[in-house]
Amino acid sequence: MLRTLAIFLAGAVVGAPAGAFLWYAFSPLLFDEVVEERLTVAEVLASGAFRDADAAHRGSGTARLVALPSGGVEVQLSEFQVTNGPDLEVWLSAHPDPAASSDVTGAEWLALGQLKGNIGDQAYSVPPGTDTARFRSVVIWCEQFGVLFSPAPLSPSS
Question: I need a surface site. Which of 17, 54, 94, 103 has the fewest CB within 10 A?
């Protein structure tokens, strides 16, 4: 009886934290977060299409770097969809076409904020004074695990 109780308690002490971690890390894969922000019509400075980073991290839609009528700059994601995951962020990257996580971390980057949802139109402000010409792609980045989820190489508008 005591042995059974000891095994049960040991399993609970080890299993509960392990289960909580696994739920935190992998539950985003089970749920989609849909957002639909109204995107401001603005001058497009550069744009590009999201693509898959690998077989497990897929993305699609369009990234646009735009100059707002108010004078600010933002990154707009339209018809956007990406594999959900924990702690996803939107970054500008100086790498022209990142194919691996090391491409992103090996180049200059600027975090614009937490991804609002893994599906739908959304916008992210670029801090005032940022030299956007230094950045050549928009990436969806998992900060927790240091993993590239989806890159969108940017091409300047003609």
Answer: 17
Separation between Cα atoms, residue 110 and residue 158, nearest integer Å: 25
Residues 6+ apart with CB under 8 A from 79: 60, 61, 62, 121
Nearest to 86 by CA among 33, 34, 28: 28
3-state SS, residue 26:
helix
10-54 pLDDT tens trace: 666 777 676 666 555 565 567 899 999 999 999 999 999 999 999
83 in Cβ contact with 29 (< 8 Å): yes
For 112, phi and psi rounded to 5 degrees? -100, -15
Closest by CA position to 132, among listed 85, 86, 87, 92: 92
CB 81 within 8 A of CB 52: no
CA–CA distance, 96 with 142 (Å, rounded to integer): 19
Q: Would you state the structure tokens that stand for residue 107, as one six-digit string? A: 């180049």
Q: Residue 136 corresponds to which tokens in the numbers above? A: 């050549």
